[in-house]
Amino acid sequence: MQLDFKNKKALVRVDFNVPLNNNFEITDDTRIQAAIPTIKHILDQGGSVILMSHLGRPQKQKMEDGSLNIKKFTLRHLVNHLSELLGISVKFCPDSVGPEAQKMATSIKSGEVLLLENTRFYPGEEKGDEAYAKQLAQLADVYVNDAFGTAHRAHASTTLVAQFFSKDKKTFGFLMDAEITNANKVLNNPNRPLTAIVGGAKVSDKILLLERLLDFVDNLIVGGGMAYTFIKAQGGDIGKSLVEEDKLDLAIKLLAKARDKKVSLLLPVDSYIADDFKNDAQRKLVDSNNIPDGWMGLDIGEQAIDTFKGVIYNSKTLLWNGPMGVFEFSNFANGTKAIAEAVAEATAKGAFSLVGGGDSVAAVNQMNLADKVSYVSTGGGAMLEFLEGKELPGIKAMKA
Ligand code: AMP
């Protein structure tokens, strides 16, 4: 961060959208932890920090009488934990703009942290309302955006607010910088071979990603539920595996594009199949294009694991988005586990590996492999859009 924060009030957009249990206790503080270096840096330089974030979807989950469910969505739930992590007592403002926020923002001193209330309590946040963004901007001298997870949204606190700060008064935080730098290691001049591993439930969620990847990867491994749409498109029998009938033509087009671009597109040749969508269903190993009626593929098979591993070990750059099977079921988590381990091993041998996107991140965390890959992205949708080649509004706004 190039800004000088001495005696400055920094308005810092973080992504504190953490999961809470029924007692409003934080069940996973990864996102808070990820913002700590930026906050500490500003404090160490002699600045003060005004934090803003959203939590959940309060506008969509209102009370029966139409009012906001403040008890559920207040950021007050985070104050104690944040204070512990920072080792100072964090102040809380029960509003994000207005007289009270102005008063508290004016009175905080260097070394202090003020957490504003959930920005989504104002409908203007998600609508990208300029007037709301301006009120937020008036609270501080400089703006820091460290919320990569929401950088793909043109919301007031993630994007519009930036226009009220000149270029020398705004900057990305450390997390945002790291996300962009690491994604660019895959996108710009990667060491080759470059292999993308894409899994998860649906082709439709990842069409743009797949299309774009085919322009620059050497190998594209497709696993998870989405593989069966490709296998069916090639004439395979897939039983009652997940399929998107309206994407069969697209699958054919993607296969043709891979041939044109000389990309090796690998599908799982075999699968572990189940007679029901549950962990303790009957389980069999069969060829992926010969799945009997009434059965569904829930994980990649042994031969697929071997082939995929071989490609992964030979790669110098790896991008992984989406699990290879229903890894939430322990009996069908093996393929995802094997791939996670292979990515970790390739990394140990010198490859650069980026794990981006919700469920593959959950998988590497579940398997305790997060520190054995080069970088684990905190932004699911944002990372996906970045890799698709879109300019994210939250990033663009900082350059203007
Ligand atoms: P995504 O969010 O698109 O990455 O999808 C992740 C979800 O895909 C996880 O909840 C997995 O359980 C699910 N998934 C992966 N493989 C399969 C499969 N073969 N059949 C059904 N669901 C799957």
Please provide a written account of the structure:
By secondary structure, the chain is an alpha/beta fold. The chain folds into 2 domains: 9-172, Phosphoglycerate kinase, N-terminal domain (Rossmann fold); 180-387, Rossmann fold (3-Layer(aba) Sandwich). Helices cover 36% and strands 16% of the residues. The protein contains 15 helices and 17 strands. Helix 4 (99-107) links the parallel strand 3 and strand 4. The mean pLDDT is 95. The site of adenosine monophosphate has 17 residues, from strand 14 and helix 13.
Which sequence of strands runs across the widest sheet? 3-4-2-1-5-6
Overall number of domains: 2
Structure ligands:
adenosine monophosphate
Overall mean confidence score, pLDDT: 95
Assign an overall shape. elongated
Distance between the termini: 17 Å
Secondary structure tally, helices? 15
Q: Compute the gyration radius: what is it?
A: 23 Å
pLDDT under 50 segments (min length 5)?
none
What's the CATH class of the largest domain, please?
Alpha Beta
How is the main sheet built? 6 strands, parallel
Give the strand tally: 17
CATH architecture field of the largest domain: 3-Layer(aba) Sandwich
Strand content: 15-25%
Overall SS class: alpha/beta
Which range best describes the helical content: under 10%, 10-25%, 25-40%, 40-55%, 55-70% or over 70%?
25-40%
CATH superfamily of the largest domain: Phosphoglycerate kinase, N-terminal domain
CATH-assigned fold name of the largest domain: Rossmann fold
